[in-house]
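Page 37, continued from 36.
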């Protein structure tokens, strides 16, 4: 028996996702008295509450936390909030926003009908709306490669999203695959706990924590880097594919130097590419990976040096970084049994999962094509994605600006010739 049209509730705006991005949009919609609802599959701020390890901290200073109407309100602006402090900060934000939210609701499908209205099928019934804001984030489906299926069933495996602490893992050596932010920080967490770690590195860059008297983030803020848009960036949309620099806010903040870890007993390898039934297979590119990460480190410092000189700022000089360890040779094979590996943590990122959204706005990699969150499909918007507009778009520092812009677009109903309506080329 079909659902009658009268049983389908129409709401002007539906927001999918109850994280900081979705609630930021709700904040501005409420300011303009625009009716809306937020659908959240789990609970508000679920990923922060359940998908971060115990020692997790922000990697940007607390002063950069600037959600709409809710700047950082603690007593350590130069510090780095720990996981529980982040959750408390976000809960206070949610308490301020008081969003019209339905928690525990799965959005099964969104499509646009012949009248240009969005049909939204959910686990609690069907809705219609004129505008949809997708705020479900850019980190949706954890990536675990097919080679994981070839590893022995007795080997404990997990993705970084599942990692909490070293006590989760069985005895034995831990293989961490991937050296981006999560991989480098989890490897450090295990290393500091006294666990033997083998780290399969990738092409992630690194950055200094403190340089010439300030946190590097503070220097880059003064230099205007965080206001550079995708369109202004030399890589254009390609910047969205960049791997985040590894650094940590742990213990008050410090840089991560994989070479130092190696000097202290961590085993480093190049990119892991396979398993032959007995041996793990690696590329012999460890030295190149370490050198490339250090080159980025030096380049950022060099840009800061130039800025300091141009502005005539008086600040202490710093001796250039010198590598504390070099690989004497590189191995392309490692016997899994002989190495004593008892567990593997996959830290190789996520892939998009928008299979429930029926709209011609995705490229061949499954990523939404947009300009500043505005897609080519009228009434369909995205927020909370890395480099949606600027570096801060996927962080606490830039989401307010993105949310305010999208709500202005919604308020104007994407008028012809307005700033919000832009030509978006769909790349298949």
């Amino acid at each position: 028996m079909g659902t009658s049209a009268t049983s389908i509730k129409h709401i002007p705006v539906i927001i999918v996702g109850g994280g900081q991005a979705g609630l930021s949009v709700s904040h501005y919609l409420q300011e303009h008295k625009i009716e809306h609802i937020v659908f959240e599959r789990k609970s508000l701020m679920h990923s922060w509450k359940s998908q971060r390890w115990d020692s997790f901290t922000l990697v940007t200073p607390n002063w950069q936390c600037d959600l709409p109407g809710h700047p950082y309100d603690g007593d350590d602006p130069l510090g780095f909030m720990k996981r529980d402090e982040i959750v408390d900060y976000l809960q206070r934000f949610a308490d301020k926003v008081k969003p019209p939210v339905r928690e525990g609701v799965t959005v099964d499908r969104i499509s646009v009908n012949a009248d240009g209205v969005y049909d939204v099928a959910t686990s609690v019934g069907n809705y219609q709306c004129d505008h949809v804001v997708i705020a479900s984030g850019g980190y949706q489906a954890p990536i675990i490669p097919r080679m994981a299926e070839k590893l022995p069933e007795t080997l404990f495996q997990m993705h970084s999203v599942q990692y909490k602490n070293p006590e989760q893992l069985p005895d034995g050596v831990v293989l961490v695959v991937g050296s981006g932010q999560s991989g480098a920080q989890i490897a450090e967490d295990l290393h500091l706990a006294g666990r033997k770690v083998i780290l399969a590195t990738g092409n992630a860059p690194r950055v200094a924590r403190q340089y010439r008297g300030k946190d590097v983030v503070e220097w880059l803020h003064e230099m205007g880097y965080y206001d550079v848009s995708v369109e202004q960036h030399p890589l254009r949309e390609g910047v969205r594919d960049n791997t985040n620099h590894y650094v940590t806010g742990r213990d008050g903040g410090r840089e991560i130097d994989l070479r130092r870890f190696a000097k202290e007993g961590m085993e480093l390898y190049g990119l892991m590419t396979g398993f032959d039934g007995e041996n793990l297979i690696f590329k012999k590119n460890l030295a190149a990976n370490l050198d490339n990460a250090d080159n980025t480190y030096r380049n950022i410092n060099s840009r800061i040096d130039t800025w300091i000189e141009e502005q005539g700022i008086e600040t202490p000089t710093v001796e250039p970084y010198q590598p504390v360890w070099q690989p004497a040779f590189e191995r392309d094979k490692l016997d899994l049994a002989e190495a004593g590996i008892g567990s593997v943590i996959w830290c190789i990122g996520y892939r998009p999962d928008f299979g429930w959204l029926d709209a011609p706005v995705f490229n061949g990699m499954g990523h939404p094509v947009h300009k500043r969150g505005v897609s080519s499909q009228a009434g369909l918007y995205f927020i909370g994605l890395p480099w949606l507009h600027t570096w801060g778009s996927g962080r606490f520092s830039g989401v307010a600006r993105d949310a305010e812009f999208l709500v202005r677009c919604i308020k104007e109903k994407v008028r012809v010739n307005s700033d919000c309506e832009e030509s978006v080329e769909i790349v298949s």
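Residues 70 and 96 are 8 Å apart (CA to CA). Flag for discussion at group meeting. The radius of gyration is 23 Å.
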